[in-house]
Amino acid sequence: MQKPSLPKGTRDFGPIQMARRNYILDAIKDTFQLFGYQQIETPAMENLSTLTGKYGEEGDQLLFKILNSGDFLKGVVPEDVAKGSVANLSKLAEKGLRYDLTVPFARFVAMNRNELSFPFKRYQIQPVWRADRPQKGRYREFYQCDADVVGTDSLLCEAEIIGMIRQVFSKLGLINYSIKINNRKILTGITEAIGAEGKEGPLCVAIDKLDKIGWEKVQEELQQRGFEKSSLTRLAPLVDLQEGVKARISVLAEFLKNSPIGLQGLQELEEVFLLLEQMGSNLDQVDFDPMLARGLSYYTGAIFEVKAHEVTIGSVCGGGRYDNLTGVFGLPGVSGVGFSFGVDRLYDVLEELNLFPRHRLEGTQLLLVHFDQAGFGYALRCLTVLREAGIRAELYPEVTKLKKQLEYASKKELPYVGICGDQEIATDTLAVKVLATGAQESLTLNEVIAKLQASI
Question: Which of 84, 134, 322, 363 is an S-S bond match for 9, by CB 3.0 to 4.6 Å?
């Protein structure tokens, strides 16, 4: 008999895990809706032509391809084999699993442009797939929670992204984190300032790995990508700036003084900070990091990355502005900005920091137990009344020993049981027992309902 298993980088989620995931998702959904975003969904698979070329060289390699149905080799002839897999990909696979939610969203906007009102604010909560090497906090199948605005250049959108991140983290009890922010125009300016004009793409790919491999290895990679040692010497002072946000802005203003595009990026960043101030906010948790790159190639303006402290997990959300992502789908000149919460990483963070509520989320509040058929019949009537009042209640389905029923409740970690015996039937009450303490009291159904509603 074959032993059941899961593909590496995927996970099952039982009832407790699902309740906790929904706790995270509800906090995110409520925040998205509070800020005026509307929900959409797109298919799990997209045409490969939609996905390729949008995520940079390394991102394209992480796309899961779907073999054509039927005889997927029928279009390949012996002469094609020598050309390698890349040359034959279009003959083997026409579709792929989505790598993120942003590119499918851009495709959606282009296809539905006449039905949408711009600026269009959407949120999307669905799984994505990446053929990455599985490790702690990194999975091959995981959920993203995206919020994007398209059809406006206003930097208010960037300021509100910071506001939404703070709102969600506050709901989840996360207080020790940093919102790293930069601007791709600043990175373009940096390449000009270090004498490597036009190489912002390779620069971003390399410095995106700073946290993983360190500055020494990043320098080696940059040299392999054609950067001169003199350029790396000029770049080095920016790698580990210790000053605060305002001081870093001053340093970059001097560093980029001969780069108009770099100064434009810096000006946009300062405007975001000014908008936050006008909204009555501050720069707490905000960290301007001129080395923040985010490897995805479609970003053109502000970029974000959020890390929770005191945990061994990477970034838990990120995003940025893209000026023409819809252009490749025939809708040019539509600017957008968005970001994504990584639900699976947030789950791991809350679990590691022990921040999930101690009570069982969304589970059964009360189990009705009984001694005999008469108690079972009485419990059936009580069950209907309780559920009509919004109490999450269930009835043990078999007439069996009370000990077995209580063991069932304990194993499910239920907070209360309602005992239905002869005395309860006679007095139209329930004997409500708190499983954690063993305390027990006799209550009418109305009193039970009031007690449980107050405990939610």
Answer: 134
